[in-house]
Amino acid sequence: MHGVTRNSLIPRELRQQIRTGAIQGQTSGMAPGFVQANLAILPKDWADDFLAFCHVNPKSCPVIGMTQPGDPFLPLLGEEIDLRSDLPGYYVWENGVRVQETTDVSSLWRDDLVGFAIGCSFSFEHALMDAGIRLRHIEEGRNVAIFRSNIPCAPAGRFQGPMVVSMRSMTPADAIRAIQICTRFPNVHGAPVHFGDPAAIGIADLNKPDYGDVVEIRPGEVPVFWACGVTPQAVLQTSKPPFCITHAPGSMLITDLRISEISLF
Amino acid sequence: MHGVTRNSLIPRELRQQIRTGAIQGQTSGMAPGFVQANLAILPKDWADDFLAFCHVNPKSCPVIGMTQPGDPFLPLLGEEIDLRSDLPGYYVWENGVRVQETTDVSSLWRDDLVGFAIGCSFSFEHALMDAGIRLRHIEEGRNVAIFRSNIPCAPAGRFQGPMVVSMRSMTPADAIRAIQICTRFPNVHGAPVHFGDPAAIGIADLNKPDYGDVVEIRPGEVPVFWACGVTPQAVLQTSKPPFCITHAPGSMLITDLRISEISLF
């Protein structure tokens, strides 16, 4: 990287390196101040139901971009964004079963596919750190811990399932400040949905995340849970569309949109 | 009351009944939507230090009104407000020791006394209930539970001491919403300062409040703590001015100011 850290690269340069495979893995902590997005790609005959599902579940599935059928580009989020190659990792699903993990889905593209970009909580992490809130997973270069909760999503069409949540551990005082800060960003999941007792939302063991990495909870800290854009993956497993593509958890689309552009106030 | 509940009386009528003694005790739940205030009255030669103390402790001591020396009126908070008689209960202090509890301090008034009205968290309780958050102490007609914490206030002049906090018990989801709502009202203590483990802020037993009433914490709930305008009383006990007057905890000044007028956004 010739003395340039990944964090100082602008989104376009990061996407170029992701496209070539020079950058792989999860994107937490990259491009601070820019919006990152989850991805769901569905055939047109499932896309309408999915949009309806997102509409009634804005906390977990805030849609910030959507393509026309067969169009893999999202110019409103970044001039040259190509959803087929610009994320570091993809999951391919058939009938609700994950059949492939890959770094490029160009060979799988079809004329009837519709891409959805869904706001990701990585987007506000820089704002939290800027307020002096330490985020252990970023300091340790890891992904957040992600869990399937027992909070039901509102069903829509053929889609239903549980809310998936991301967890960050912090002191109560930092959690209060984080709630205030994240309230400004509803398009990237906004304020948390829960803190404290994980069993209250159906999480049995914080040391066994369903996705992402284990994150330590130190004395004096509480786990704080945000609605997560991995929710569509849990829902797709239940609803079983014949074919779809998602991002691999933590491997997000880095957009040109600044977090300050989507701040509510 | 001839079919009129206290809650439907406007602030001026409530103050009139308080002045005559027809209404006594604590004011939580009265005049929903109007700002309530804590009271501190000090001799002029201590008032400057006290204002400095409030200035550096805006979370616990947000000054919303201040009189000229010898003047007991606060027309900006209510045309005919008389600080000597318009609160249901007063404490009188000498050298940091409480020497009297009374419902009228007119006979104690002096030409050098300066009155401070400090925003009270009762002011936002209606906004919380309006959002569907149940407040047990109001449903049970009691005062909030109030505790001396070990959070140090910033010292100023001759004043120093611990922050006093009020406690309300609610689910984590309601606490998150309460943090959002209260953030709009910094002049009446704003967002909480802590939630969860009471020992983390030096509270040994939630069943033994230092002021106010015991409030039950039910399964699935967490205690949520707000900075409280009783803080000056804890500070006065430490700093020992020769003479001062405060409200009795929970017996507040009900002002004509609407909570919507002081909302930050």
TrEMBL record, chains A, B:
Sequence similarity:
Belongs to the D-glutamate cyclase family.
What organism does the record attribute this protein to? Pollutimonas thiosulfatoxidans
Q: Which Pfam families does the annotation name?
A: D-Glu_cyclase
Task: Cite a single GO MF annotation.
Answer: lyase activity
Please state the Enzyme Commission number of this protein: 4.2.1.-
Q: Which UniProt keywords apply?
A: Lyase
Q: Does the keyword Chaperone apply?
A: no
Name under which the protein is recorded: Putative hydro-lyase CKA81_16585
